[in-house]
Design brief:
The chain has 399 residues and is mainly α. It is built from 11 helices and 10 strands.
Length: 399
């Protein structure tokens, strides 16, 4: 079904352009499956209005006068997530200073994130001597609300810490400490005072509020009532962004639509889906999850296809970056959702930059980099006929 709200906005925009130019202008409205932005189906008029407020805030470009910096990574949310898609190496984040569960040893030296740009007169941060680090390419934003409302019980049901089924895959959740401003989900299950993370490369954020407040503070150097400590002075200062604005951005992220698969009935795509399952890629990239209760009715009790299990997996020594977050090991990474991957090039300058740090320049290269628990599936892929390989790649690109 076409996203009527997105199409309405585009039509209004097209009319405005036509009225303000000397010549008639016609704009082709892209089909839902060709773009990542747009709302989930079923929002109320009040929710649509709030989505628009969040969209506007997400696109706000900050300056010195509006709170940017003094050191920062980006000047806006949209600069890291063009079209709500994946980021580019230019916007890649650098995290440093933690190698195990004992915590970050370099918080007093700017950790956990490097602010690699600065306003005139301010020197950007440098990675402190002795700190291990990892690069994180910003992920796509779409479908995040569905991820938020998967219940902890369902996430734990997918975990297999002892590999009881013998498939070589033993996913586990990342148990994290949550800040005081984060209210655990109604379905949350705690373990020794820790909660399950589900956002970020290592699943180090519990909720979209947790993730968004961190992004304002660590990415743009902007304080809020949630994160009042200035990253440059390490002192508590007045909020530089309104609480209502942060909450509007959270709502915007919650209500972005799930990516729509392209050409699902294509024979080769269907062949690829079958082979994808046969070589057990679905051992981690689960093809179906469901939400529990959500205060946003459009997200309640929905079945969706993100191709992730939200769990951490040992990805082998080749992807061990000697940096971690929460209870994750340095070689463990959360299974990234594959939905929307076929549109990643659109937001990445026409090229792929995949894996957690953008090191893979194609889908096939990303598969070949899999190790650890994914080694059996990687080997099985390499042993496929060229026809089956091409089918798997076409299937993944259709997501």
């Amino acid at each position: 079904m076409k996203n009527k709200f997105s199409k309405t906005l585009l039509i209004i925009g097209s009319l405005f352009i036509g009225l303000t130019s000397c010549e008639s202008t016609y704009t082709d409205i892209p089909a839902d499956e060709k773009v990542l932005d747009g709302t989930v189906e079923g929002l109320t008029q009040e929710e649509l209005a709030r989505f628009l407020k969040g969209d506007k805030a997400f696109n706000e470009v900050f300056t010195r006068e509006t709170g940017l910096g003094p050191t920062f990574v980006a000047t806006s949310c949209i600069s890291c997530h063009a079209g709500d898609g994946k980021g580019h190496p230019f916007t890649t984040l650098v995290r440093f200073g933690q190698i195990d569960e004992t915590g970050n040893l370099f918080l007093h030296k700017g950790g956990p994130q490097l602010q690699n740009r600065g306003l005139p007169g301010f020197i950007p941060e440098q990675i402190p001597t002795g700190a291990t680090f990892s690069k994180f390419t910003p992920p796509a934003n779409t479908g995040l609300g569905f991820i938020q409302f998967v219940t902890d019980a369902d996430i734990l049901a997918m975990a297999d810490p002892n590999d009881s089924n013998g498939d070589g895959i033993s996913g586990i959740p990342n148990w994290i400490d949550i800040p005081d401003f984060v209210i655990p989900f109604s379905s949350a299950i705690s373990q020794n005072g820790k909660y399950i993370g589900r956002y970020g490369k290592k699943a180090s954020a519990h909720s979209l509020l947790h993730q968004t407040a961190n992004a304002y503070n660590q990415d743009m150097g902007i304080t809020s009532v949630f994160r009042p400590i200035d990253t440059y002075t390490n002192l508590e200062i007045d909020p530089e962004v309104a609480t209502s604005t942060v909450n509007d951005v959270v709502f915007y992220l919650q209500t972005l639509k799930a990516p729509v698969q392209r050409n699902p009935n294509d024979a080769v795509v269907k062949q690829g889906a079958t082979v994808f399952n046969q070589i057990n890629c679905t051992g981690c990239h689960k093809s179906e999850l469901k939400t529990g209760y959500s205060p946003i009715k459009a997200l309640s009790n929905k079945t969706f296809a993100p191709y992730t299990d939200l769990l951490l997996h040992d990805m082998g020594t080749g992807l061990d970056d000697s940096y971690t977050e929460g209870s994750a090991k340095t070689f463990e990474w959360k299974t990234p959702a594959l939905w929307g991957i076929g549109l990643s090039e659109n937001s990445q300058g026409g090229n792929y930059f995949l894996m957690h740090d953008g090191r893979a320049r194609s889908i096939e290269e990303a598969i070949i980099m899999h190790g650890g628990e994914a080694k059996n599936s990687k080997n099985a892929f390499e042993n496929l006929s060229q026809s089956d390989k091409n089918a798997v790649l076409k299937f993944i690109k259709s997501l």
